[in-house]
Amino acid sequence: MHSLSPFPSDWLVPNWPAPANVHAVCTTRAGGVSGAPWDSCNLGTHVGDVPAHVQANRAFLQSTLATKAVFMDQVHGQTMLELVPSAVTTLTASGTPVTPQADGAFTQCRGLACTVMVADCLPVLLCDTQGRMVAAVHAGWRGLAGSGGVGVLEQMLMRFNERFWPLAPVESGQAATKVIAWLGPCIGPTAFEVGDEVRAAFVESIPQAADCFTRAAPGKWRANLPALARQRLASLGVTGVHGNDSSSQWCTVGNASKFFSYRRDRVSGRQAACIWLN
User: Fold this and answer.
1) Cα 197 versus chain centre, distance
2) What whole-number distance in Å separates Cα of residue 171 and Cα of residue 185?
3) What is the pLDDT of residue 234?
4) Which of 106, 183, 187, 267 would bridge with 243, disulfide CB 3.0–4.6 Å?
5) pLDDT of 99-154, one tens digit each?
6) Residues 245, 261, 103, 247: what is their CA dihedral angle, to the nearest 10 degrees?
7) What is the DSSP string of 212-273?
8) How far apart are CA 83 and CA 180, in angstroms?
9) 20-46: pLDDT as tens digits
10) Residue 115 — φ and ψ, nearest 5°?
């Protein structure tokens, strides 16, 4: 992890071999105006923070990105949203902006930042090696596991295939070798305790997923979310995976001064991971 101006000093700028026209950042608690317990750069509108503070924090994010961060209403589903100018200016009858419901966003348009908010779930940023498309995915365990072995990562890789390699099925891995990924901070493997049903959701489709769980108590397991994501990406042929390696510095729960964590605090703000084309 490393930081780069003009962002606050502890915001995370991915250290990965993305094309020069691909830009990305992951915010932390730093840089905003919210008071405790949302201090200080909470970007979530649904967590009880003062609305004016959230809007000021989002305005600060927009100014540092110098591009439009497009937020989604995330529901732990598998809907992937394409960002085009017309999709981010939709208004209701009363004139208020419509927040699209999705758990992943992708775009080939400059000036629009695919943005996911997290406070323990795993943000995954992706781009193709030629810098033609970028994507951001909100990967909690439900979205990552998906249904029948098809979750949010599989859904997003299908979008890359459809655009650039329609003759190479996502299962073949041919297209995925031309996609790279960055994993942001999330709940770490020493903090993420889950039940038998969560382990079963992964192991039923990929037996090797058992390696990503360690027993904590009868019927309880500690899950390694970044390792599960890396395993899914590897099964899709994505070998260029960077960022979160499951070490303690990436854990949202264990780094209270840096990251928001719903599992730790219950009343918590949200950080955001953004990726865009210039």
Assistant:
1) 23
2) 27
3) 93
4) 183
5) 899 999 999 999 999 999 999 999 999 999 999 999 999 999 999 999 988 999 99
6) 0
7) GEEEEETTEEEE-HHHHHHHHHHHTT--EEEE--S-GGGBTTT-TTT---HHHHSS---EEE
8) 20
9) 999 999 999 999 999 999 999 999 999
10) -135, 130
CA 173/CA 88 separation, integer angstroms: 32
Question: How far does Cα 220 stand from its chain's mean position?
Answer: 26
Instruction: Kindly list the distances between the CA atom of residue 204 and the CA atoms of 76, 147, 154, in Å, as whole numbers in the listed order.
Output: 20, 10, 16
| Residue type (1 letter), 105 | A
Q: What is the token pair recorded at 39?
A: 């201090």
Low-confidence ranges of the chain (pLDDT < 70): 1-5, 87-97, 167-176
Cα separation of 93 and 126, whole Å? 35
CA atoms within 13 A on the CB side of 187: 21
**Burial of 165 by CB count in 10 Å (0-12 exposed, 13-18 middle, 19+ buried)?**
middle
Phi, then psi, of 81 in degrees rounded to 5: -105, 130
Span between the terminal Cα atoms of the chain, in Å: 22
Q: Say what the pLDDT of residue 188 is.
A: 98
Q: Give the SS3 label for residue 99.
A: coil
Q: How far apart (Å, rounded) are the C-alpha atoms in residues 44 and 29?
A: 12
Residue 45 one-letter amino acid: T
Q: Tell me which residue has tokens 């605090």.
A: 265
